[in-house]
Design goal:
This protein is an alpha+beta fold. The protein has a single domain, classed as PH-domain like. 18% of the residues lie in helices and 39% in strands. The protein has two helices and seven strands, in the order βαββββββα. It is rod-shaped and about 90 Å long. The mean pLDDT is 82.
């Protein structure tokens, strides 16, 4: 399982609300060849000075097979990636922050999700279908007598049989 995309951003189950920064979880967005993971991030203070470490907790794990569609949309004043699953759940993801409304990042992420789903489906279809035999190249020998022939000939000059 290889990593396709990783970024920090906000996410939630359902639609984005008006005060999205307070109602959405902040964390890591991880896209692999098998799943889309949304991992919650919180800071833990180690000392009184205020140094902190990142603490990652389970968020949402969405298998790619269960995603119906993913698309970029402008909701409120930010761009989000809306992920709809086959069991009618809705997830919203944004990489917007105080400096950016997240337009390009949401377009990129939605395209990567869709491309990864298509790639996964194609790989599974190729694995499930039997191997096609390669077509044999046209022989330049007569199958009856073994004489070397030209491809344009309709009859063998040596044995006279129809090719």
């Amino acid at each position: 399982m290889s990593l396709v995309y990783v970024s920090e951003g906000y996410f939630c189950e359902g639609e984005v609300e008006k005060k999205w920064q307070f109602q959405m979880e902040f964390g890591k967005i991880l896209l692999t060849e098998q799943k889309l993971s949304l991992v919650k991030k919180s800071n833990i203070s180690l000392t009184e000075i205020g140094s902190s470490i990142d603490d990652f907790k389970d968020g949402f794990i969405i298998p790619l097979e269960s995603i119906k569609k993913a698309y970029s949309a402008k909701i409120q004043k930010i761009f989000v990636v809306v992920v709809e699953t086959r069991d009618d759940h809705l997830f919203s993801i944004t990489m917007a922050n105080n400096r950016s409304i997240g337009r390009q990042q949401s377009i990129t992420l939605s395209e990567l999700i869709n491309a990864t789903i298509i790639k996964t489906i194609n790989i599974k279809n190729m694995a499930s279908s039997p191997n096609d035999k390669e077509t044999e190249p046209v022989s330049n020998k007569c199958e009856y007598c073994g004489e070397i022939i030209d491809i344009s000939w309709k009859f063998c000059k040596k044995c006279g049989k129809e090719l």
